[in-house]
């Protein structure tokens, strides 16, 4: 990937847009699980809801990377417990693409 492409990708996307993209990509899974996406907060555990499993998580990340041109980085934060580090939420997944933003 060229540096110009990276700059374009970073300027086009932000955490809010990535969160919306994640919700859009998960829409069929929400429906299949009988989950109303309007009731799911961005901090909800997508594994516990049955919306994602480990394979679905990888598929989702690949789809987001392909769509945005950004690379996901799922390195746990220093203060996270091991359980929290592997608990996917929309916020956590969106943040994986923007480690420098709050």
| CATH architecture annotation | Orthogonal Bundle
Query: What separation lies between the terminal Cα atoms?
Result: 26 Å
Class by SSE composition? mainly alpha
Which superfamily, in CATH terms, is the homologous superfamily? ACP-like
Gyration radius (Cα, Å) is 14 Å
In N-to-C order, the SSE pattern is HHHHH
Reported for the largest beta sheet, the result is: none
Description:
It is a single chain. The relative contact order is 0.20. The chain has a single domain, classed as ACP-like (Non-ribosomal Peptide Synthetase Peptidyl Carrier Protein, Chain A), CATH 1.10.1200.10. The longest helix is centred in the N-terminal third of the chain and has 19 residues. The protein is mainly α. The radius of gyration is 14 Å and the shape is globular. The N terminus is likely disordered.
How would the blueprint of this fold be written?
Blueprint: H1 3-12, H2 15-33, H3 54-68, H4 82-85, H5 90-95
Helix pairs in contact: 2-3
How would you sum up this structure in a few lines?
The protein has one domain (3-95): ACP-like (Non-ribosomal Peptide Synthetase Peptidyl Carrier Protein, Chain A, Orthogonal Bundle). The model is unreliable at 1-5 (pLDDT under 50). The protein has helices at residues 3-12, 15-33, 54-68, 82-85, 90-95.
């Amino acid at each position: 990937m060229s540096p110009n492409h990276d700059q374009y990708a970073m300027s086009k996307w932000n955490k809010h847009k990535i969160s919306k993209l994640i919700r859009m990509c998960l829409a069929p899974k929400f429906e299949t699980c009988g989950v109303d996406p309007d009731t799911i907060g961005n901090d909800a555990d997508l594994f516990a809801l049955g919306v994602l499993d480990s394979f679905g998580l990888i598929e989702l990340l690949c789809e987001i990377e392909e769509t945005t041109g950004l690379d996901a980085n799922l390195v746990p934060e220093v203060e996270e417990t091991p359980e929290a580090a592997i608990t996917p939420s929309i916020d956590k997944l969106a943040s994986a693409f923007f480690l420098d933003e709050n």
